[in-house]
Predict the 3D structure of the following.
Amino acid sequence: MDSDLAESLAALKESFDNRHLPVSLGKAQEELVLELKAKLKLPRRYRTFLLEADPIDVETRTPAERVRLLQASEILEEQDGFSLEGGKLIEQQKPNGWKPSWIVIGHSTLLGDPYFLDSSEADAEGDCPVYSAMSGTDNWQPKLAASSFAMFLRVLAVTNEVAAGFSEENLDYDDEFVFREALGPRIRVYDPAAAKAGHWT
C-alpha cells in the first residue's frame, strides 16, 4: 500500500476510533479482486485497498450524510443495472447518462445515492476521482466527491471528525447547516477541487 493511501486509511480508522463508532476491515481474496479487475477494470489503488483493508463494515455518520463503503463481495452485484447488464460491462453510455467506466463503491444510506469511481480518469498512481449523483432523477449528473480514491478516504475521515461535536439523535436543519459550514474549510485543506464542487457543503 502506497503512502498516500496508507495515510488516508489511517486517518479514517482514527476518526472512527475517536468517535467510538463501529468499523471492521478485512482482506479481500486475491481471486475475487482479480475477477473484479477483469470485469470492471478496477484501478490499481482501489484494488490494493480491497486486498489490504476490505471495508466489511464501514459507514460514516454525520448530520448531513452517511456513507457506507461496499465490501469486495458486494461490488459485482451492486453494479447490476448500472455498468453491468446480464453480468457484462455495458459498451457505451446509457441514455440516462451512466457510463461504463463508473464503478459503484459505496452508497448514501440516508439518500440512496451512489458513490462511484470513474476509471476513465485514472492517473499515474492508478487512482481516479470519486463522484456521487442524485438517485431518482431522469439523468445521472455526477458531482465530484474527491479528486482520488485515497483523497475520498481522507474526506470521509474529515466528515467523521467534524461530526464529533454533534449529537446523533434529534438532529434538525440547523445542525446540518452548521455542520456543512464547518466542514467546507476542512475539506478545502485536503481537496480544494472537491470543496469547490460543493457536494459536501
About this structure: The chain has one domain: 3-197.
